[in-house]
Amino acid sequence: MATSFSMVAHHSRRTEGEDKIFATNNAALSAAKTVGASRVVNASIGALLNEDGSLSVLPTVIELLRTLPAEEYAAYAPIAGLPSFLEAAKKAVFRNHIPEGFTEAVATPGGSGAIRHAIWNYSNIGDAILTSDWYWGPYKTVAEEHGRTIVTYTLFDEKDTFNIASFKEKTISLLEKQDSLVILLNAPAHNPTGYSLSMDEWKEVVAFLKSQAANPEKRIILFSDIAYIDFAGNDDNSRSFMELFGGLPQNILTIVAFSMSKGYTLYGMRCGAMIGISSNPDVVKEFKSANQFSNRGVWSNGTRPAMTVLAKIFDDPGLLKKVEDERQLLQDMLTERADAFIQEAEKANLKICPYKAGFFITIPCKNPDLVAAELQKEYIFAVPLGKGIRFAVCSVPKDHCAKVPQIIARVIQQVDTEA
Ligand SMILES: Cc1ncc(COP(=O)(O)O)c(C=O)c1O
């Protein structure tokens, strides 16, 4: 409903618009009521669901949470996070690929909290934040909430690999205009495309940033968003790029965002951490104090029970193994769905973004809103993005994943001919 009378401050006046993910999910739920859930393909939800539509959980994690003593729920955590949690978070992030240099960690409410602090504490008001043209919508929300903007480079080149030329061009042009640059890079298992940079691509990114850091006036903050890393294949291989974050010039700070939402199926517990890596100990000392201050200034302390659960898991190799085994079953389920989708997409000649792993497959198309609307008529609910539609393989049973590519291909062709 449009309002002519407004009470909010100038900076909070925004155009109203329904969140497309929630709108698509609501449409799917209401269709399920009319035609029955089995006829509806709800590919809007960004959470891993079982084949029967229930939320996938890691039983060991939930059991650990349930058996915590009352004080673990009732007590505050320290503002920066429980020290045992922060140590566990570093282990969970790096595993065998600890970058050389100094690291500090601060607890945040999920990866979202880390994004917020990185933007606020490492860019200046009015600055542009750099990310790829396919990106998770809340990057823009968080940037705008804090008086920043998002500028994008083109993620893929004509060979469907990382478009390093575009990345370089946009980085250079922003560093000409501003002294600090925060770069949000979501990989492996990127949302929404499922792309993971190869080791060579990572090397090129880091080498290029090093060249830009030759100007000592510039500050480069590489924000590595690893929200889906635990669903990106082998734990060890998926983390090898992190060694590249060691031994960098002091004016490059790497921040890795750790989240317990997906990897530990604790979406609602709002627990994660930001880990700063630098070759200069003062930079990580400052990282700790600035982000701890922001914790106090924005949400105070984080969710203690979730922190304790992670600390327990990484304190006991047997528990860690159980969690990993349970997660492997979920990973296998996800991979089977993605494989089924990709196989059928090939048969149907349906072009998709280069998917390596993760919760989503994205189909580029010219008229995403029209395509999504037409698909809804066939009871397929996928999220329209700026340049395509996002299909959440994480929340759709395998037989549906195999069925839909043909329909999507037909609908895109139909919409494109009519438009
Ligand atoms: C790309 C990306 N980054 C970060 C997050 C943060 O999630 P959370 O704040 O729950 O850790 C998400 C969640 O959907 C995401 O898709």
Secondary structure blueprint with pairings:
Elements: H1 20-35, E1 41-42, H2 59-66, H3 70-74, H4 83-94, E2 102-108, H5 110-122, E3 128-132, H6 138-145, E4 149-153, H7 164-177, E5 180-186, H8 199-212, E6 219-225, E7 252-259, E8 272-278, H9 281-298, H10 304-315, H11 317-347, E9 360-364, H12 368-377, E10 380-381, E11 383-384, E12 388-392, H13 398-418
Parallel strand pairs: 1-10, 3-4, 5-6, 6-7
Antiparallel strand pairs: 2-8, 7-8, 9-12, 11-12
Helix pairs in contact: 4-10, 5-6, 7-8, 10-11, 11-13, 12-13
Question: Could you describe the 3D structure shown?
Answer:
The protein has 13 helices and 12 strands. It is an alpha/beta fold and 419 residues long. The protein folds into 2 domains: 10-58 and 323-418, Aspartate Aminotransferase, domain 1, CATH 3.90.1150.10; 69-318, 3-Layer(aba) Sandwich (Aspartate Aminotransferase, domain 2). The longest helix is centred in the last third of the chain and has 31 residues, at 317-347. The model has no long low-confidence stretch (mean pLDDT 96). The protein binds pyridoxal-5'-phosphate. Residues 46, 110-112, 136, 186, 191, 225, 227, 259, 261, 267, 272 line the site of pyridoxal-5'-phosphate (PLP).
The count of domains is: 2
What best-fitting shape do the alpha-carbon axes yield? Answer: globular
* Discrete helix count: 13
Q: Residue ranges: pLDDT <50 for 5 or more in a row?
A: none
Q: How far from one another are the termini?
A: 29 Å
Query: What structural class do you assign from the helix and strand content?
Result: alpha/beta
CATH class of the largest domain: Alpha Beta
CATH superfamily of the largest domain: Type I PLP-dependent aspartate aminotransferase-like (Major domain)
**Sheet bearing the most strands, described?**
5 strands, mixed
Task: Identify the bound ligands.
Answer: pyridoxal-5'-phosphate
- Enter the CATH topology name of the largest domain: Aspartate Aminotransferase, domain 2
- What is the average per-residue confidence, as pLDDT, rounded to a whole number? 96
Please give the number of β-strands. 12
What's the CATH architecture name of the largest domain?
A: 3-Layer(aba) Sandwich
For the largest beta sheet, what order do the strands appear in spatially? Answer: 2-8-7-6-5
Helix content bin: 40-55%
- Give the strand content: 5-15%
Topology pattern, helix = H, strand = E: HEHHHEHEHEHEHEEEHHHEHEEEH
Taking all Cα atoms into account, the compactness measure Rg is 22 Å
